[in-house]
Amino acid sequence: MNVKNEKQEIIMQISALLNQLIETEEKQHKEEISEKPIEMLTVKECAAAVKGLSEHTVRQLVLQNKIPYIRTGQGKKGKILISRSALMDYFGGTA
Description:
The protein contains 4 helices and 3 strands. The protein is mainly α. It folds into 2 domains: 1-36; 40-90. The chain has a 3-stranded antiparallel β-sheet. Strand 2 and strand 3 (79-83) form a beta hairpin. Helix 2 (43-49) packs across helix 3. The protein is rod-shaped and about 75 Å long.
């Protein structure tokens, strides 16, 4: 076996190992995501979770679509729920 073939064989082995590593990490990441429940907060709970944040400001962020939310119930009378992670991401992880 010449040097060029040896190099190609080593590169192929490294590539195969990297692919296995990536697949393993992706599988672990998917398992971590599926294990963690999403914590949803009401407007009042959001205001309490972030120091200095008012309920009015949370509602304004929702109306301006600056933070993702879901509305339970029907129409404008439905309760607004915001995931804790989305709220913390918006405010840079500070609470």
